[in-house]
## 1
Amino acid sequence: MTEVSSADWRPNADLTAIRARAELYAEIRAFFRESGVLEVETPILSRAAVTDPALASLSTQLDIAGFGPKRPLYLQTSPEFAMKRLLAAGIGPIYQICKVFRDEERGRRHHPEFSLLEWYRPGWDYGRLMDEVGALVRLALNRPTMPIERLTYRDLFRDGLGLDPWHTEVDQLRRTAERAGLRGLDGLDLDRDGWLDLLLTQCLESRLGRGRLTFLCDYPPSQAALSRVRTSGEVPVAERFELYIDGIELANGFGELVDAREQRARFQADLALRREQGRPEPPIDESLLDALEHGMPDCAGVALGLDRLLMIATGVEHIDAVLTFAIERA
Amino acid sequence: MAFYSTNEFKGGLKIMLDGDPYSIVENEFVKPGKGQAFNRVRIRNLKTGRVIEKTFKSGDTVEAADVHDTDMQYLYNDGEEWHFMHQESFEQMTATAAAVGEAAKWIKENDICKVTLWNGAPLSVEPPNFVVLKITETDPGVRGDTSGGGGKPATLETGAVVRVPLFVQTDELIKVDTRTGEYVSRVKE
């Protein structure tokens, strides 16, 4: 698709960015060593895949004796399922730095192969985990006094657009987007979450985390497939947070769902939606469900995009500037 | 009928929208952490030149426009339409004044132009980047001034008016950059 020119053997990132990544990883490892969180490694390939309709898995095939007929193995979109199996086995607090893969994602802040830092804190709630994320990011950016704020999803939409995301119909969300100056929306057919996503990314996100760490939290339950749900101010909210700095979404965390039956129901609902949309229906991760059935401790977990953290640390606008070789040169 | 998925969007891709052909100027992929992905594009209407914005759900498909560029030789203008000939097939085609547009200011018989065809008919015409044209009228410059500082207007054989240095005179040939409409140099016959 893209022409390859003779200069394409060169790295996309300059030497400063490549060194900054090495420094960052060393700092992260020191941070977790000090706080007693164990580094783990889990497989990139899996027989099962994420069911979330918003994520597309890449797959490959294995050809070894004794493995049976060829069938797809999926590249992880996050190490979540394997790490939760470790948690159910009683491993305690763990973290991982790894490559994850998401098909169909390419842009200024998206690359189909990227680096995640993911960690889990058994016995913690998501509020306490937000504090730890804040401390780690301040350290990584070398800005120890950077202000930290928490903002609920509901308040963001109320203050920013004058609407309640729990009680606004699709037609009104469309009108709000038009009034906010978004053009070319005719013919765009979205459900409520789709319109909320459009408003969040196009009208609200850029003002989040200006000169500070903004934790956006308590999402509509329909936007958090793997998190616990509780009631807050007469509406059900998902215990989910996202961290923004300079308008960039940097991390996504949950008060983790530990109920096997509820998890299976959500997987099946995802697959039903995928069928409706004509998208692939990958196998459900039965090992994860077995682990939840066995019993996973209450915990909070978060995934943080390391490439984006490096973008912020080095002050660049495009993800390619922190990658040794972007996919077009891979 | 061919279709493109939003995954194939990139600058220069030609798509159909509401019956008109468009070219993608800019494509931005937008996706929240766990939700709906979008492609926000700026697209140019190839008939009117107008640039508009459009938002697509990622994964949606859109009809491809049968638009492609081909080099053609400009033959003549019959007073109403402009006649071009394909360099290899020698097939001749006519373009309307609207399709020729600004290129009319610059092209002369036998010039090779980039003609954009839509469903096989000329949609727009781009002149060569540089053309050599004769000056049909310009004020005599002040003798001795060779700096070219202020310049003066000169009318060319195609009717276009460009600013030229004071030392350039009527009947001389000059080279012009059609992208900027600026004088480049004198040309010796």
## 2
Amino acid sequence: MTAPIVVAGGSRAALRRNFRRGVWRVLRRKPSRMLGVVILIGFAFMGAVGPLLYPERLPRDDDALYAPPSWEHPFGTDFEGTDVLALVVTGSRYVLMTALVTALITVVLGTAIGLFAGFRRGRWDSVLMRITDMKLTIPALPLLLVLSTVWKFESAVEMGLVLGLLGWGGVARAVRAQSLSLRERGFVEAARGLGLPTTHIIGRELLPSMAPFIAMNMLIAVTGAVYAQVGLFFLGVLPFEANNWGVMLNLSVFGGGALTSTAALPYMMAPLLAILLLTLGIVLVVDAMDEIFNPRLREE
Amino acid sequence: MPSTPSDTREDSPPDAPGRTAPGVRIGGLSVVYRTPAGELPAVRGIDLELPPGTITGVVGESGSGKSTLALSLLNAVQPPGRISAGSVQIDGLGDVVTLRGEELRRARGRHVGYVFQAAQNSLNPLKPVGRQLLDLGRSHGVADLRALVREARDLLGRMGLDGARVLDSHQHELSGGMRQRVGIMFALVLNAHLVVLDEPTTALDMITQATILRIIREVHEERGLTTLVITHDLGVVAEVADRLAVMYGGRVVEQGPTRQVLGDPLHPYTRGLIRAIPRLVGDIGEATALPGRPPTLATIPAAGCVFRERCPLRMDLCATQEPPTVAHGGRLVACHAVEGGIREERAGAGNHGGQDGAGGPDGRDGAEDPDGRAVAAGAREEQA
Amino acid sequence: MITGQGITKTFRQRGGVLGAREVRALRGVDFAVGRGGAVSFIGESGCGKTTLGRIIAGLEGHDSGEITVDGVAMSSLRPRARRPYFRRIQLIHQDPYSALNPTRTVYQALLAPLALRARQTGRPASWVDGRAGELLDLVGLDPDYVLPRYPHQLSGGMRQRVVIARALTVDPEMLVADEAVSMIDVSLRLGILALLRDLRERLGVSVLFITHDVATARYIGDDGELYVIYRGQVVERGPVETIISAPVHPYTQALLSAIPVLHGLERPGAQPVAPTGTLEEDKPDAGCLFARRCPFATARCAEEVPVLGRTGDIPQEHACFHPEARSVVAVPAGRA
């Protein structure tokens, strides 16, 4: 809502440039953070471009069912003789897309509701928090079971939507608690005293102070969403129409007997490794969030 | 609970030898903090003696190193800080800097009592005061906890509180002044005879402050203590201390008997500081802000005088050579200008920007109107 | 002109030993601050002075009484309509560290209120940048240095100056400074006080100064008025110099006696007054509120309530049955 103001000397551009430089500085401070960023970029690339590298229908090799790892098939093949690596790469889009949508919905909804309730207090707060409480009491898994009987979750967006709508409660509560304490701070009172609009106070004063917290929640929501959907597919709760890491796990364990025989082990390990690697990348990057959004830590 | 006074033995202080006020000699003490920019000195080459039975006040602004100095007395400087040189000799205890582990822990509390900077908030909010007292007693292996409780109650009673009631209270049930007294009780209850009070009256209002200062003075005399008071407030020191040390940028720039230092300050910083305090009587226009701002750990000059950037008596020498600490009568001053006999010149020349004889009893001269200039000049240089 | 009549405020606290209890923070306070004037409220912590400041700045409501801004009674307006009036009264917080958003630069902190101001007054957007520089100049800061910096890069004194500059963005009529220098280094305090005094003279801004340190109140304006508050009630009111040199209420005398004496430079006052006991809120309210701590209290003080007013030839207003001027403050050692 800030007016379009011509800023002398491009001050706002300068700020943005400084911010970018600061982020770079923070990331370089620890090699682990750079590694995390590289991993996340890798996954983003895999989800965006990966599936394009393979044909629509992955080739099968009936002579090499459950083939062991080799140069040709780094993670071996599955029960149909399809390359496991190709399955992981083509399956990543659904998983990552879902995770992204879930995280976005969780954070946007949770932050908006938490901020509004915490800043407004009073009646709005009571109503919103009662809704949040009710939402928190809904058991997600049974609800998903019920939903899956009527809904196929063919698109990742649908899946993400459902997981997101089920997941914002915790964030809303935490953000509300933060804004309740922040609104007592001198600078928020000063903004009110200066007559600045509520949109400014929430968007420009409260939100930036919570940015590290929100960013962390966003990243953690990504891992949560990955676990949730992979778990659902693994359990076979959802009918698998699409290629997916959870489906792979399910087939390797229940179809290939990966837990009892070694033949399907690489088939099971590949998606597991992908999930672990993704989690690792996120954990490493989360470590930098505090420093990125706190000017004092960023500039030092 | 702690409020049962049923005990027959008389010796109230728990296994207390008949100790008396110890003397303390701090010699060449330096404390450095590790930062991304390397090790920076918070306290550099401090020599300070606390004669037995006296109250010494250390005055300084933020970044002067006064709290670090106080922590050094217990060898309690926390990483990333460390004592890099010097010694702290305490009578009956030896050099604290060389103490380690269990020895050190026992010395704290028994020999050296410490009242923390935010004593108002340093109590455990979840436990009543009495329970915290028992914890303290047990951790120091006090055999007779009843006597400890009785001692605590007596101390609190001495400070004008209802001891039994206070011991049964939680932190939130006590006012700021009461908590401060509880903090003093904790520092004294193990019969320490050297007491360090870090900002004992910050965040208290005037009447409570006056009460606490009176208590500090009285308890000091009754129990025969050696006391060190750390504060940013010259008024506090003036009320309570026999001797005064002024710290700036990690050094002691002037020290001596309180009345002498206040009545006839020698170091330009001491003079400026006294002059910067608005007083209740006299021409209010005489009060003048010190130009510039106090250095932080990162901006303390590595060579030369730490005060030179704000100093009206600055000379070329000050940029390169650290002023040695020189005795002037009963006082020690570290200033090239003072050493060079500038004082004599000063008597005649009135062109030192009104800094002359900043608050001397006879120094209420040359009060050219500093209004407005204090704003413009004072603030502008603050960011230099 | 900003006035208040009979302002009362009662806080209801939950918890504590006795369960819910009431704290009467303000018991009918009247005040008036004229254009460019200086009024100081002094008293112990818990006397209600901070609450009064927040109420005057419109950050908190009050139970009864009336605040008028330039003759307009605030109670006659709807909450939304009050805002432009309360905007003319800006609060300077005690803590310059929390008063500035750590994630925003000084430029950003000034930009938002200035942009709003530009829109309200129909000024071009380009006015904002020039004005930000002007204001920083006014408070004694170098705009080029300060504008691009974050609060943590500035000293306490500079931060407080930025806070004052931010308050000036809306062209206020009055600044309410609540212990505005208590968290600032001693050598820098005077600069802030001088700035407030300077703003009075140059801009005609009035200052309502809340403090427990009477000497700083004197520096804001020796032409100003002093209000001494005890337990939510004004017990003495008059010109600063008069009250310092000849206070008549025993509470004022106790406050002034408690100010440290710079031994060596000063001698203590001839007739210091020490209060008995400590401030306790849960006492019954019969008679004079200070009677129990007052060394001069008589039977009458425990029964009747003294009202603020003038008696005899005492120049200042007071609420005491036995007013007697005493010299309690320290005097320079050099003088007789």
